Amino acid sequence: MTCFPVPGFHYTDGALHAEGVALSAIAAAVGTPTYVYTTEGLTAAWRAYADAFAGQDVTICYALKANSNLAVIRTLAQLGAGGDVVSVGEMRRALAAGIPADKIVFSGVGKTRDELVAALKAGIHQINVESLPELEVLSAVAVELGVDAPIAIRINPDVDAETHGKIATGRKEDKFGIDFAHAGEAYARAMALPGINPVGIAVHIGSQLLKTTPFRKAFGKLAELVRDLKAHGVPLSRIDLGGGLGVPYKPEDQAPDYPAYAKAIAETVGGLGCHVTLEPGRSLVAAAGLLLTRTIFVKEGLHRRFLIVDAAMNDLVRPAMYEAWHTVIPVAQPAADAVLADADIVGPVCETGDTFARLRPMPPVAPGDLLAFLTAGAYGAAMSSTYNSRPLVAEVLVSGAKFEVVRRRPSFEDSLTLEQMPDWLSP
Ligand SMILES: Cc1ncc(COP(=O)(O)O)c(C=O)c1O
Ligand SMILES: N[C@@H](CCCC[NH3+])C(=O)O
């Protein structure tokens, strides 16, 4: 899978379409900036997992943090996905979108007592515990509620995921999980505590991994640990291998090899008699979404040509936050012989970091032209904000020739509803 074309997005009759819908029609109806997701893209991403793991006993819990739009979650839930959640808000979204409680895993380094109470009351499949203090609080809460908490302990395997430093999570200096060396101690405590049922073990080494080698390394270490723990009487029956499989963002990026990933899992943890859970986020939703934006101005500077668009870092923060690349293409298909010229593609926010691309070879673009930022379905809308008092970006889901606004753009009045003026400032 390269970043374009991908299932769901294509040029037809010189115009970029999402399935059977012209993106210009969505822009006319909904305005810009708007995220557009395709059912076809979501389904294709799901199928890649289903095909790779056919015949293996694997549950796929979609990591809602990548895109927590209810319609996106429900589309994946209807294909068979469970959910991986990291807050009570995500847990409630998963339930509201139709994911049954017994297919929900709760991850995260800092769950509050209230969140643990909510998770136990909802009767979810598993809580992935990341520290001894969390284990103690969970035990107390479970005893209070009169239930047993099914848990996995997240282990930090000290493996470099070979990804961007800000999204690597499995090195010893990272905040996630319990050190490999303290795993035995953690399980001994879990076995001794009332209300704790230590059924599983978990690992997640990072995000946007394009190679299988770091996974193989981490899963191999985990397998050794599982054998050792089982030999010491820990009743492990579940292994949660997290998410992390990447997607090609740049045309030259090599798409991850799903069969090799499935093989790495089978060959490392396959023979342990444990049920395997995966928590993919990005790889299920990234390619299924694009950010549709309109060019406001074209500014010819002395040193640069700037395409100033109506999307900004508050709508898609990945380039500002991780120097991430998103391929940008015009909605009107450029002529085959169009001459490319370098441009900086920037948003209106008052930060130099509000730059989506520097010196990007682009075909001719005029004010008013629509552009699409590809591979934006993951960590796009989910990380959007209202910085500079810009309304939250709208989201649209397409299915065949139909499209629907699945999150509307808030009005200015909506944006004021959470604020109030103290009496002493009344005129
Ligand atoms: C515990 C956990 N599971 C799953 C994911 C999903 O990762 P990705 O979107 O890279 O598949 C993350 C985010 O990196 C995570 O922290
Ligand atoms: N937000 C990151 C991924 C973080 C993964 C969460 N653990 C991105 O956009 O690439």
TrEMBL record:
GO biological process: lysine biosynthetic process via diaminopimelate
MF terms in GO: diaminopimelate decarboxylase activity; pyridoxal phosphate binding
Metabolic or biological pathway, per its Swiss-Prot or TrEMBL entry: Amino-acid biosynthesis; L-lysine biosynthesis via DAP pathway; L-lysine from DL-2,6-diaminopimelate: step 1/1
Modified residues (N6-(pyridoxal phosphate)lysine): 65
Keywords of this entry: Amino-acid biosynthesis, Decarboxylase, Lyase, Lysine biosynthesis, Pyridoxal phosphate
Requisite cofactors: pyridoxal 5'-phosphate
UniProt protein name: Diaminopimelate decarboxylase
Organism: Niveispirillum cyanobacteriorum
Taxonomic lineage: Bacteria, Pseudomonadati, Pseudomonadota, Alphaproteobacteria, Rhodospirillales
Gene label: lysA
